[in-house]
Amino acid sequence: MAFRKLDLTPALRPLLLPNETLLFVQDAVGLYEGRYKVPNYQNGSAYLTTHRICFINNEEPRKYSAALELKDVERFELYNGFLKSSAKITLFLRPSDPSLLNSASRSASRSPTYTPIQTPPRSSTPSQSFNINRQWICPICTFPNPFPSNFGPAIPIPPCLTCGVKPNRTVLDAVVNSPAPTPKLTAEPSSDSAQLQAVIDKSKNACPRCTFINDHALRNCEICGEVLSSDNIDESLASGGAVARNESPGPAYLGSIPLGEQIDSVKLSFRGGGEKSYMEKLKGAMVQRKWLLEQAPATPAVTSGAANLTLDSDPASIGGTPEVTERVVGIRGLERQSRNLRINNERTIAGAFEDLEALMSRAKEIIALAESFATQLSDNPSLANSDAKEALSNSANLLALRPTDFTVTKDQISSSSSTSTSLYHAELARSVADFLADDRRSILKKEGGAITLVDLWAIYNRARGIELISPSDLENAAKLFDKLQLPVRLRQFKSGLLVVQERNRTDEKIAKSVLAWLDSLAEAEAWDLETDQRWGKSILARDAAEKFGWSIAVATEELEMVEESGVLCREVGIEGVRWWKNPWMSD
Amino acid sequence: MADSALPGYYPEFYSFPPFFTRQPNAASWSSQLVQWRAFILAYCRAHKLWRLNLLDALDSPLFHNKAINRKLPLPVVREIITDLTATSNAEWTSPDKSAAYIFWRTPDDFATLLYTYIDDTGQKGTVLTLHELTDGDNTTDQEWYGMEQAMLVRCLNVLVKRGVAQVFSVGDDKGVKVW
């Protein structure tokens, strides 16, 4: 279950999932499985993202690449290397027992720094299922965190998912000592409605937090995302949920790594150094655990719901002592007053975060909206003014831009490696190639298949917005296009003008298309001048630029290139150079 | 269009505007050069032009197609004439390359023609003045009729080199004796 298939972009970089960000790249890395080297996976680049570790082989990237989900990683350690053995990072994987995996991916509550734990399957221990439904409220930011499933005195406490501050152990202890929320709701039959609810709960899949009655098959509440009662989960686990995730879904695995088997550790061998910075970034990624964000409930209602729940069960969870409801004065009164104040503060903070989350969820919508604007614009023929159209779609594109898709910064590249600059340029080249190949922008298409390096520099930097790159970096990166076998290539015209163009765009193709165009021009109109009939129609570089969408500089260079091949000949006149079909070569 | 009215020695390309631009492409240029060479020689032959003054010729129909308003630039003309001199079809009259003799036949060919003419008319062994050869009443239908004297001397020198003629001065004029 460890390695997954990895999709690559045209430029042979890992295809990032939504919300996934590239953190670091290190080349000259080999892959070990347990103690043994994995054949064909010995020289490649190890990409670290917020979600995965991606290995891409240098020679045959499409064939030999694999991804390891960080959430499958139990813990990791650094081996510094000794004599001939290079430095390694060992990643210990979670046992790939399907039921355990389920709990890991769903509750996703374990901290990576835990020692491997021999937890029996969750469903067999009541304490496990008990913990699943629990949450502890961060005293700093009031975020309801999932309770660590293996909580115990010897286990270090995981930091809060939102603010990253480790809570006091007493906070978690309080949660353990307090009655579980699920039984609490059902076991308080103080009124008729509660009794009714208990009945409903038994038959239906009611949410313990918001009481919404969910479908049987769901494990998380549809409304608030709360994990539903463990009984239901176990039922669904028994009845097919587990089957779906069972063992090996064949094609997803890679042939040469024995994936059906259980791999308990994987090593990344850093032959070219760079393990220190990689380790650092890995540590950061494991602490941040960005992959949880996808599973975290996104709607703002959750926060408020959670906050309310906190307040409801407040006396137990905060003080741990039953609260006396009679009116008190003196020191107790003051204490109570300050507690009320604190509760109020919590509410305010929760409200504030509610807004933030609302903003975040809105951001996605806005991006989607902007994208739809962009497509509408490009489809709309009524916008005759191409400049305005371009400006509009540009701004829409910018709005929809997710710079993390393609930005490579120097700090993502190991500085300790001696080849770090060339690695940086290689990564930059890949990212530029991705940028150019991006369908949403289709820059090359707009530019007629070729773009001058200067224009590219401007557009690329504009798209990046921040972390701008220098022209020389871009030039160096562009020079690597060929070596990296990217779908674009750098071409130098006779005059020294550098353009980036699609790889499959050859001189012959251009010459052919220009010739075909000239022929069609000659046929299209009946010319009253005899000369024009015999010699065809002549064009200016400007006409070609208009026809093929090139910039004038590119058009001139292309036409000169075609002339070089003998298809065209020139006529230097007062209005500039006119181009004619070359009659001398056709003889 | 005046094109159809042009005499036969005008090349087809005379109406092709790029013909009046020196092509940078080497292959195109070599074809273009061949056409220009042939055209210049044919034009001079038809017009009995022996000496081409470049500045004057630039405005003549030779280098200036008024119908399409295209003119061959002076440097290109010079380049073509220089190419002609390499095959003895032209000779600069002065080092500043402002004018050239145009031999639409090479001096060798003219020499052979002259020799045949003198032989056919039974004038071997007699002294002929150059004026007689170029402007005499008997040579009006000969190709070299009207040829400049300097050019004729150049041709006769070929015969001298072959050892069948001798050139000498007769008063102001020059004489030649072929045997």
Automatic annotation (TrEMBL), chain A:
Recorded superkingdom: Eukaryota
SUPFAM superfamilies to which the protein is assigned, alphabetical: PH domain-like, Ran binding protein zinc finger-like, Winged helix' DNA-binding domain
A Gene Ontology term for the protein's cellular component: late endosome membrane
Ranges where the record places region Disordered: 101-129
Keywords: Coiled coil, Cytoplasm, Endosome, Protein transport, Transport
GO molecular function annotations of the record: phosphatidylinositol-3-phosphate binding; ubiquitin binding
GO BP terms in the entry: protein transport to vacuole involved in ubiquitin-dependent protein catabolic process via the multivesicular body sorting pathway
Compartments, record wording: Cytoplasm; Endosome
Residues covered by the GLUE N-terminal domain: 6-298
InterPro entries: GLUE_dom, PH-like_dom_sf, Snf8/Vps36, Vps36, Vps36-NZF-N, WH-like_DNA-bd_sf, WH_DNA-bd_sf, Znf_RanBP2_sf
Pfam families listed in its UniProt record: EAP30, Vps36-NZF-N, Vps36_ESCRT-II
Gene3D superfamilies linked: 6.10.140.260, Pleckstrin-homology domain (PH domain)/Phosphotyrosine-binding domain (PTB), Winged helix-like DNA-binding domain superfamily/Winged helix DNA-binding domain, Zn-finger domain of Sec23/24
PROSITE patterns: GLUE
Family per record: Belongs to the VPS36 family.
Function of the protein: Component of the ESCRT-II complex (endosomal sorting complex required for transport II), which is required for multivesicular body (MVB) formation and sorting of endosomal cargo proteins into MVBs.
Subunit annotation: Component of the endosomal sorting complex required for transport II (ESCRT-II).
Xref: PANTHER family: VACUOLAR PROTEIN-SORTING-ASSOCIATED PROTEIN 36
Protein name: Vacuolar protein-sorting-associated protein 36
Organism: Drechslerella dactyloides
Automatic annotation (TrEMBL), chain B:
Transport in keyword set: yes
GO CC terms in record: ESCRT II complex
One GO term (biological process): macroautophagy
GO molecular function, one term: structural molecule activity
Gene3D superfamilies named among the record's database cross-references: Winged helix' DNA-binding domain. Chain C. Domain 1, Winged helix-like DNA-binding domain superfamily/Winged helix DNA-binding domain
InterPro entries named among the record's database cross-references: ESCRT-II_cplx_Vps25-sub, ESCRT-II_cplx_Vps25-sub_N, WH-like_DNA-bd_sf, WH_DNA-bd_sf
This protein's UniProt keywords: Protein transport, Transport
Signal peptide per UniProt: none
Superkingdom, natural source: Eukaryota
Family recorded in the similarity comment: Belongs to the VPS25 family.
Protein name from the UniProt record: ESCRT-II complex subunit VPS25
Provenance organism: Drechslerella dactyloides (Nematode-trapping fungus)
